[in-house]
Design goal:
homodimer, about 400 residues, alpha+beta, Thiol Ester Dehydrase, Chain A, 2 domains, 9 helices, Acyl-[acyl-carrier-protein] hydrolase (chains A, B), Acyl-ACP_TE_C (chains A, B), plastid (chains A, B), lipid biosynthesis (chains A, B)
């Protein structure tokens, strides 16, 4: 398994758990109503509704900073059923999470529909809020207390997003997210995005997560104590009917489109100081020719993560239309063309409807894969026709 | 005035008005409970709470698309006092707007604090939601019905943002925004961002808007009918104590730092098909040396907009530390250094704490200014110390 997966970006480190607390963590010395909660009194107006236990104070600057961060973030240490500020609630008998979001003006592109980057951001946000609400977020990046004790972090190995409809500016959406088992040592996280007005499903997504030792950067089995924390949150329910089993082939220097010398900028780094997922996606999509992007919209993306990308890496983005792959024609597009009487030649003259992608770091001696991906596209329609007319 | 200002990006086109409705606009043929609202019945579950009048149907595709967009966006056509999905409410006797927002995981940078880009996005979002709630948003970009009749749009001419504290991931903020008069033909829009828990003000911002003819792209006087719409919303209250009166000098090819050949990408365009404000900001900030950015945080920015930037423009970003300007030393930084006993030489050895910026399009015959700016910075502190300890 370790050879297939790699260490990955990402702040999303999406876990949801339900277990015990360490008494050794700095922030775990808690007295809600005790003598150490003096800062609460000094704070003046404290208007948040959550239960907000306080860490103890060590008297040194770091502790004061930690306290301040704790007060300002207000991460709950007990499971919350509703969050009035995030418009979040626990569903699925208290183990799934639902959040209502409004598509914001800056989350849409020139065509007034949400960008795929914004949608990925919302997946990350709701996943982290799920963990947040669970009361077990210990380090801010999704690790459980049991994981912290074992020096483990979550890394994402695979993600698939299917977009049937793109939400538009101002549209109210409901995002459901939940977790399930994935093999013996992994976790699956799924999402469903629905129109709040009609219940129509716009987007389905699934992802796979494994644990990695923070120091050795090697993948790890799931310790029993961690399984005990998170297993109670697992649901046997899949957002994506059948995960695409087709392997994503590795591109090489012969790829049709190549963008080289891509350098992460300060603004591309997330809280983990890794290049964020959205930047990966932009690098990949910007390698597809503009003429194609103008007339098509993304309907499906599968990402296979291999290695994390840091701020000093120099990245190369490779992209190959699947239509011309030796490994096979773009089956669906071709056969529908043939059915329409255009024949195989007609089909071959068509634009591709799928691309294979690779992001890799260009090292002096060797290249290292960051992420492979496959994108599938459909022609843009004039209207989305989500309401009967 | 027309020579000073220019046509500008921006989707923000921030107006708030309160007046009549045109009976000639396509979407204005409204029968809420009448025979034409058949789509409402067909829609099945309709769970939104707003009053949602329906446009009439012309029977052609564009009308169906317009109807669908109308239903999905659900822009209210009457003033709303609260918006449960945006966590928005009217304040200041019903003419100001307040929205509660949680800083999201992807809105913060590597240091866990909200990026200035995210903050500008939130200003845009709340301004548009203010207009949205007013019931008078006619074209989706902020124009009033009176402006639509006169073929006018809003353009921003100046913006200033003062950041005393940066919110952190998960922090709950309250954003207030309101409008006021600015001269005879302009409008001012202000914002205040406060910690929801303590009421401490983190950010103050102000902006100036004028009207432009959509076809001729020339600035326009404010027609009486438009004044009648928007004047009732004006408040005599300023978020920024004293707007910086100092003129921003125009940089030329002698500027210390120059980034050339900057090209907008597809993802940089907003709903108006102009380069969005955040991209401007990135281009400007990325021209400042990395060593400086690592140790400083932005405390104040003034932007003077001159011309809109389209997708085919090639942009140059110029940047000059103010410390070394002939036009004067960085007054505040120098005098505080002198007061601290370092003398003028000591002060001159310090890093600058202010930069002048210019974005311009590089034409074949001449360059054209897009935006001038001045940024002011402070050294990064270990902790923000917003709570007494």
């Amino acid at each position: 398994m370790a050879s297939v997966l790699g260490c990955v970006l990402t702040v999303t480190a999406v876990y949801i758990g339900g277990g015990g607390e360490s008494s050794k963590q700095k922030l775990n010395c808690v007295k809600v109503n005790g003598s150490k909660s003096f800062a609460l009194e000094k704070m003046g107006v404290l208007r948040q509704d959550h239960v907000m236990p306080m860490p103890c104070i060590g008297g040194v600057d770091e502790d004061v900073d930690a306290l301040e961060e704790h007060l300002r973030q207000n991460i709950p240490r007990r499971k919350q059923m509703v969050d009035p500020y995030r418009l979040g609630e626990m569903v699925e008998k208290g183990v799934g999470y639902r959040q209502t979001v409004v598509i914001r003006s800056y989350e849409v592109g020139a065509d007034k529909t949400a960008t795929i980057e914004s949608l990925l951001n919302l997946l990350q946000e709701t996943a982290l809020n799920h963990v947040w609400m669970s009361g077990l977020l210990s380090d801010g990046f999704g690790a459980t207390h049991g994981m912290m004790r074992n020096n483990l972090i979550w890394v994402v190995s695979r993600m698939q997003v299917q977009v049937d409809h793109y939400p538009i500016w101002g549209e109210v959406m409901e995002i459901d997210t939940w977790v399930g088992a994935s093999g013996k040592n992994g976790m699956r996280r799924d999402w469903l995005l629905r129109s709040q007005a009609t219940g129509i499903v716009f987007i389905r997504a699934t992802s796979t997560w494994v644990m990695m030792n923070k120091e050795t950067r090697r993948l790890s089995k799931m310790p029993d104590e961690v399984r005990a924390e998170i297993a109670p949150w697992f649901i046997e329910k899949h957002a994506v009917e059948e995960e695409s089993p087709e392997k994503i082939e590795k591109l090489d220097a012969n790829a049709r489109y190549v963008h080289s010398n891509l350098k992460p900028k300060r603004s591309d780094l997330d809280m983990n100081h890794h290049v964020n997922n959205v930047k990966y996606l932009r690098w990949m999509l910007e390698t597809i020719p503009d003429e194609f992007l103008e007339k098509h919209q993304l309907s499906d993306i599968v990402l296979e993560y291999r290695k994390e990308c840091g701020s000093s890496d120099v990245v190369q983005s490779l992209c190959e239309p699947r239509f011309n792959q030796n490994t096979g024609l773009n089956g669906h597009a071709v056969s529908s063309q043939i059915l329409q009487g255009n024949g195989l030649l007609g089909a071959l003259n068509q634009r591709p409807l799928s691309y294979t992608h690779l992001l890799q770091t260009k090292g002096e001696s060797k290249n290292e894969e960051i992420v492979r991906a496959r994108t599938t596209w459909r022609e843009k329609k004039h209207g989305a026709k989500l309401f009967p007319s």
